[in-house]
Amino acid sequence: MAKPGAAPTESNVQTACPLDCPDACTLDVTLRSGRITKIDGSKDNHITNGYICAKVRTFHERVYGDDRLLYPAVRRGAKGSGQFTRVTWDTALDLIAEKMRDARASAGAESILPLCYGGSNGFLTQDYADAILFRRLGASRLLRTVCAAPTGAANLGLYGKMTSVSYEDYPEAKLIVIWGVNPGVSGIHLMPFLKEARDRGAYVVVLDPRATTVARQADLHLAVRPGTDLPVALAIHRYLFEEGHADQAFLDQHTTGAADLRRMAEPWTFERAAEVSGVSAAQLRGLAERFAKASPALVKCGWGLERNRNGGSAAAAVLALPAVGGKFGVRGGGFSMSNSASWDIDRKWLADAEPPTRAINMNKVGRVLTEPEGTPVNVLFVYNCNPVAILPDQHRVIRGFEREDLFTVVFDQVMTDSAMYADVVLPATTFLEHYDFARGYGPITLQLGKPVIDAVGESRSNSDVFLDLSRRLELSAQGDPEDDLEAMLSVLGNLPERVGNDLRETWKAAPPHGGRPIQFVDVFPKTADRKVNLFPSALDSQTPQGLYGYQPDPGTAAFPLALISPASERTISSTLGELNRPEVRLEMNPDDASARDVEEGDALRVWNALGEMRIKAHLTHLVRPGTVSMPKGVWRRHTANGFTSNALVPDTLSDLGGGACFNDARVQVEKAETTK
Ligand SMILES: Nc1nc2c(c(=O)[nH]1)N[C@H]1C(S)=C(S)[C@@H](COP(=O)(O)OP(=O)(O)OC[C@H]3O[C@@H](n4cnc5c(=O)[nH]c(N)nc54)[C@H](O)[C@@H]3O)O[C@H]1N2
Ligand SMILES: Nc1nc2c(c(=O)[nH]1)N[C@H]1C(S)=C(S)[C@@H](COP(=O)(O)OP(=O)(O)OC[C@H]3O[C@@H](n4cnc5c(=O)[nH]c(N)nc54)[C@H](O)[C@@H]3O)O[C@H]1N2
Ligand code: SF4
Ligand SMILES: [Mo]
Fold first, then answer.
1. Which of 73, 380, 426, 442 is 20 to 30 Å apart from 457, CA to CA?
2. Phi and psi of 347, rounded to 5°?
3. What is the rounded CA–CA span in Å between residue 271 and residue 277?
4. What is the pLDDT of residues 599-623, one digit of tens each?
5. Atom number in ligand 1 closest to CA 187
C-alpha cells in the first residue's frame, strides 16, 4: 500500500499467460500502487508481438471483480442455491480432511474423485501438489478426455507426438489446409503468419461448417457437415493411392500400415465423400489435386474435427495425409497440431507413481454420479474445472451435483456454475498471484509465470492448498515442498539442465531446434521404430468400426440439426463467463430459420431427448444449412432457462481416446411462445 499522500508508483512486470490457449503469450503488466491497471502483450516475445486477446487484456476485471471468491465458505442453503457462510481456512480444510478420511474408511479411497481440467495448464497448478495428495490417498483417477483425447490418441499412435511445424514456418508453405480449427479466435497469434503466407502466394483451404474469419479469407472454403472429415480425408488418400500420387519411396522407408490405410480409403470415391460431407465432389477433387502437387504443403489439424463419433479416425486420416503425399523434409511442409509434447519433459519432480486405482472418464461424470457401478463417488474435489458448464449431459451432471450424500469441494477463482453446488468453496489465486510454468501448445515456448500482485482476499494457490491438505491427512513425505515457492524451485531443479538454467536467468527457455524444427530433418516420429504408423493396431482395436471406419450421422427425422459449440472470443472455455460479454444467441442459417418460421431475435426452444434450451436466434449465412452453432463455455445465466448446449450433448464417446462428442448433439428448433 502507498503511504497516504505519497504519489502512486507505477511499475511494469513481465509474466506469461498459462490459460488453455495454444499461444502462451508473454505479458506486460502495469501496476499502480500494487494494483493491476493494464495487461498487454510483450514485444520481447516475437510470437506475442505486443498484442494479446481482449479476454486477458481485461483479466483484471476478473481479479478484482464482484464474482471473485475471497474466502473459504461452507454451504448454508440447499445444494445449488449459492448460499454460503464464511469460514476460516482451518475450518474448511479440516472439514475436507475429515470427509476424505471418513470416505476412505467407509467406502474406500476410490470413493473420492478429483475433477480437474484445463483452468490453468501449468506444471504447478496441475499434476504436482494435487497429484501428491490424490495418488497417496489412492483416490479414483480421472481420465482427462474432455478435449484433445481423440487428436492426442491419433497423433500418439501415428507419430508418437512428433513436434509440429511452428507458426514461424507457415509463410514457407505454398498450400495450407486449415482443418477444423479457428485460429482467428482460438489461437490468434497464428493469424499474422497465415497472412504472410497468403501475401507470399500460399493457397489456403479451410474445412469448417462455419465461414469463420480464416475461412472467409481463404482461397477455398469447404463447409463440411460436422463429423464428416473422415470420408473427406479418406477420399484424398484414395486419390493419392489410386491415381499414382502417393510417395512410394517415403512410404517404404518411413512408414508401416500404408496398405491398410489404402484398403480403408478404397471405397471413398469423391462422389461418396461428397454425399456424406455435403461438399461437392469437384471441390474435393480440386483439393486433392492441389495437395498432390504442392510443396511445401502444410496440414493444420485442429480440435473442432475431433468432437464427434469419428473424431479420432478423422484426425488420424488428416495427420496421415503428409506422409502419403510425401510432404515432409522441407521447411513449412508436414503437419501442425498440439506442440505440448515438444519439450520432452518427464515431470521428474513428481516422485509418486500413479496408483492402479479405478479410472473414470470425465465425459461420464454425470452418469458416474447418478448411476454408480461399483464404489460410488461420495467426495468430489473440483479444481481447474467448471464441470456444470463444460461437461456433456448437463442435466445428469447437475442431478449428480444435487445429490445430498455427495460432498463436493469446488476450488476456484470465482463463483462458477459448479461452485454454486459446492459444500465447501475454496478461493484460488489467479496466474497473476502465483508462480507457474506456462507451456505453449502452438508455439514451442516455456516460461516461468510470476506473481505480480499479492493474493486477492484470502485466496491461495493450488500447490499451497493441496500441500496443506496432504499434511492434514498425514500423507506428507520427506522431500515434499512446503509451499508454492518451494514447489516452483523443485520443478526448476528437476527440469532438463539447459531449460532450468534458461528459466533461472531469463525466465524463458530457448526452445528445442530454435522453435522451428523441420519434420523428418530435425524431428522424427517418437514411435518405437521411429516410423509413421499409418495403421496402429492399438488404435484399430479401440474403435467400434475399426480404425478409419466411418460411423454415420446420429441425426434423425425428429432431431435433424447438428448443434456445434466452438470456441469464441467471449471466454476461454467457460473462464471469464462471469463477465458481461455480448449476449449469446443460437446461430442458424436463414434457410433452416425460414423452414421453421424463425426470424432474427426470436426466442427459440432447442431440444432433443436429453433436454431443452431457451435462447434467441441469430440468423447468419456464416453457418451451413443443417448446422446450428453457439459458443462453448456459456454459463447457465446466459440462456433463458438455465441450460446450455451441454444439456443437449450426449455422453457418448468418440472412436479413439474416449473423447467427448460435443458436436454430435442433434436437435430440433422451434419458435418459443415465451422466452421462459
Ligand atoms: N478465444 C478462445 N480461444 C481458445 C479457447 C476458447 O474457449 N476461447 N479454447 C481453447 C481450447 S480449450 C481449445 S481445445 C482450442 C480449440 O480450438 P479449435 O481447434 O479452433 O476448436 P473449436 O473452436 O472447437 O473448433 C474449431 C472449428 O471447427 C469447426 N468444426 C466443428 N465441428 C467440425 C467438424 O466436424 N469438422 C470440421 N472440419 N470442423 C468442425 C468449428 O466450426 C470451429 O470453427 O482453443 C483454445 N483457444
Ligand atoms: N459444449 C461444449 N462444451 C465443451 C467444449 C465444446 O467444444 N463444446 N469443449 C471442451 C474443451 S475444448 C475444454 S478444454 C473444456 C474446458 O473445460 P474446463 O477445463 O473446465 O475449463 P473452464 O470452463 O475454463 O474452467 C476452468 C476453471 O478453472 C479455474 N481455474 C483457473 N486457474 C485456476 C487455478 O490456478 N486454480 C484453481 N483451483 N482453479 C483455477 C477457472 O476459474 C475456471 O472456472 O470444456 C469442454 N466443453
Ligand atoms: S489467452 Fe491466448 S491469446 Fe490471450 S493472452 Fe493468453 S495466450 Fe495470449
Ligand atoms: Mo480444449
1. 380
2. 50, 50
3. 10
4. 999 999 999 999 999 999 999 999 9
5. 47
